[in-house]
Structure prediction request, 317 residues.
Amino acid sequence: METMVESTVQLERFGYLAVENVQALASKNLDNIPSRYIRPEIESDVVSADESLQIPVIDVSKLDHDDEQKKLHFACKDWGFFQIINHGVAGEVIEKMKTDAHEFFNLPLEEKMVCAQVPGHIEGYDQVFVVSEEQKLDWSDMLFLIGQSAHLRDTRFWPTNPSSFEETMDKYTTELHKVMIQLMKLIAKNLGTDPEMLLSLFEHEIQSIKMNYYPPCAEASKVLGASPHSDATALTLLFHANEVEGLQIKKDQKWVPVKPIPGAFTVNVGDVLEIGPLPDLVKTKKALYRTVPVEEFRKIKFTSKQDGKFMIRKMKL
Prediction:
């Protein structure tokens, strides 16, 4: 389950091409999966075998100490990823979200398709951002919803089975919002800027929720659950629904597997925090990125296939 907090007042709607549901493909027990899912580039990817190389772990309960704040600054600057423990989100809130998510994804396909995306909408049950007939596809299905920005929700796409889903999601996203606020204030402090000023930029943020489901695959070594990408968010808080290692991040031209700590969230510093520099941060230093309206940024992101750090490359001066 992936939670993304994004910095925009308005949710634009984009249409995506329909493709066969991955769970439907998996249920056919095919010996050979369709070629659009085969990713030859996997063979040339370099994955780190150094098990001591792991993303930093931040203890949120100790962030009132300088040493832990310095660890957070290093994690944001040098990695852009870190795990957080002792974050204050109650275990029962997380477990209930896991249970409801599992119940939804375990429903018969026809029941899940009641929540399917429709042309012109980003919310709903489908695949991730399919924008062309030639695009390689991920071996995963997703449920994409709007979280705390309740007035922007389209309830047509919200599951009613399990019946507790909406209440569970409200509790879960409320707790994650609190964690996000705490982290953003400390990130601002580490940058030497006013925390309240930084937070004001996200006053009308959209909190979006993306739950990913990865069905079994007969040719698992040839497919990707998620194409290499960066997140068009301020912060992404990712919770691993189990201890299966799947997430990898790229550092120094190598893919580093993330070993999820039970109960922890993995935090990703998104593209939005890296671009459009704050005025007080470029008074004495040259800006490295151009500033664009959030609507333009969003349009570029959601009308393009996932392709590594292309958004950051596009915004560099």
